[in-house]
């Protein structure tokens, strides 16, 4: 009797520790070029696409290296 109870307990609680394969979870990074191409396609403005490229490059740099103050 005791063995059966322990087995069912282990079965119930083992799922928490061993999760399934997690593929495609989490946020994907947007490259600066992708953001610029998307803006260019949407607006047709080269200036807006260029500013979007710079903004996205700065955002990605902050994610990688942390915020850097400019003095």
Helix run count: 3
Helix content: 55-70%
Mean pLDDT level: 78
First-last Cα distance: 72 Å
Outline type:
elongated
Order of helices and strands: HHH
The proportion of strand residues reads under 5%
Tell me the radius of gyration. 24 Å
Please characterize this protein's 3D structure.
The chain is mainly alpha-helical. It has a domain at about 30-65. Helix content is about 70%, strand content about 0%. The chain has 3 helices and no strands. The chain has helices at about 1-15, 30-45, 45-65. Helix 2 packs antiparallel against helix 3. The radius of gyration is 24 Å and the shape is elongated. The relative contact order is 0.10.
Brief summary:
With 71 residues, the chain is an all-alpha fold. It contains three helices and no strands. Helix 2 packs antiparallel against helix 3.
Key traits:
71 residues; mainly alpha; 68% helix; 0% strand
Layout of secondary structure:
Layout: H1 2-17, H2 32-43, H3 46-65
Helix pairs in contact: 2-3
């Amino acid at each position: 009797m005791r063995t059966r109870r322990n087995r069912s307990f282990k079965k119930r609680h083992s799922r928490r520790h061993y999760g399934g394969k997690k593929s495609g979870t989490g946020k994907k990074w947007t490259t600066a070029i992708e953001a610029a191409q998307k803006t260019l396609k949407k607006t047709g403005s080269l200036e807006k696409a260029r500013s979007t490229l710079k903004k996205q490059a700065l955002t990605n740099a902050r994610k990688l290296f942390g915020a850097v103050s400019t003095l």
